[in-house]
Amino acid sequence: MYTFKKSLIAFVGMHCKRSIPALLIALAIVLLACTVSQAAPTLPPGNTVQQWNTIAENTVVGSGAFQAEGFIYMGYVSSAMYDAVVSIEGGYEPYSSAIPDASGASADAAVVEAAYRTLVNYFPSQAATLDSFYTEALALIPDGTPKTTGQAVGLAAATNIINLRTGDGRLTPIGVTSSFPTLPPGPGVWRLTPSAFAPPQTPWVGSVRPFILQNADQFLPDPPPSLQSSEWVEAFNQIKTYGEATSSARTSEQTAVARFWSANVVRQYNRLARDVAEQQDLGLLQTARLTAMVNTVGADALISCLFAKYHYLFWRPVTAIDPTAVTADGFGPIPGYDDANAATVEQLGWRPLLVTPNHPEYPAAHGTITSAMAEVFSSFLGTERFNLEIHGFDAAGPAGNLNAVHHFEMPNDLRNEIIYARLWAGLHYHFSSVAGVVLGRNVAKYDLRHAFQPLN
């Protein structure tokens, strides 16, 4: 305010010899300019794709969507934005289909329209907030034929995606559970887990039609190891030792790594995409291409993972180590079952460092999505030495923060960390995360060979 007062005094002094009406008009202009400059912007930072990727992320996560279904919704929005931009700028295959008559259209207007129309279709309850962003974003684009043509392109792109994905197996409302084929109760069979004993998380995701894959079981992992195998004994004893909440074998650094990866992966990898776009000074097309790759591949990876999880229905460590850690879930008796292997010793009261998510064990979802993302960023950047900085949860900060940063030079550095992070968290056996890593890499490699490619 002090700076404004000084500017206003200087302005009046410069124009004191003018007529009063002219002075009042000029003064009104200054006041209006000051008001605009001091108003807090509502749009997030970055180019138009970055802005609407952030808006989409906040909309999806804010809806309460679980992470697997969250990537599905992000896939809808990001593919619509990508198709809108590529229809105007060309150079790459569209995800769905190119929009005709896009020549001379504003790509910014197309992005705004595509993202907005897709989001309000799936999240009508958030329309008021989305309307505000939409109005502000369009006001920044000069009126004229390029703007209106761009809006038409964006609307067409959103409509194409919405029509394409209609009947794809997505269930509503957000976070809804569903039925799934169960297995006869016994050793190795999944049970609900403490402390919430929450209903099974989104089994329906495994039945959603993939974005690019041919089907959800295209890369189905081999079954988990036999409970009589040496691999099972090693994995059981390893997580029992290192994954317990009060483990003395796990170091403070390992505990921090485990907690780092408790962040929401939708936020982690979309933030990473925006960070890469900023660091690489990407334009709209490449930003749209990267975010579409992240979210469609991410969705396919987790669709494949959830299909496998509810196919195998393998038990979590807390259920295997402490047979009393079950509830009247209808899946078996109380207490649960011993694995009937003399080389493993159960421990009553054993609990993991982090609360076990409410879906089956095998394969590990974090291993799957993280491996897929490692492949996406390596492929997009065209190098095995991608030198990425990923934001994760900092236990010293507020809930849900992404204040901690880990640096990864190569894709396999990232994959290796997630395997051990979930082990140290007490959530996944080593073999489950390895299976997830293989699944995620296979899904990503296939998807990226069949989408978002340069035109010949």
Structure notes:
This protein is 53% helix and 2% strand. The chain has two domains: 48-165, no CATH class; 203-449, Vanadium-containing Chloroperoxidase, domain 2, CATH 1.10.606.20. It has helices at residues 2-14, 20-38, 48-62, 67-89, 107-122, 127-139, 145-165, 230-242, 252-260, 265-279, 284-312, 317-321, 365-381, 411-424, 430-449, and strands at 388-392, 404-408. The protein is mainly alpha-helical and 456 residues long. The model is unreliable at 1-41 (pLDDT under 50). Strands 1-2 form a two-stranded antiparallel ribbon. It is elongated. The longest helix is centred in the middle third of the chain and has 29 residues, at 284-312. The protein has 15 helices and two strands.
Reading side by side through the largest sheet, how are the strands ordered?
1-2
Helix/sheet category: mainly alpha
Summed up, the helix count is 15
Order of helices and strands: HHHHHHHHHHHHHEEHH
Q: What is the quaternary state of this protein?
A: single chain
Q: Based on CA inertia axes, which overall geometry fits?
A: elongated
Average pLDDT works out at: 92
Report low-confidence residues grouped into runs of 5 or more. Answer: 1-41
CATH topology of the largest domain: Vanadium-containing Chloroperoxidase, domain 2
What would you report as the Rg, rounded to the nearest angstrom?
Answer: 26 Å
Report the count of strand segments: 2
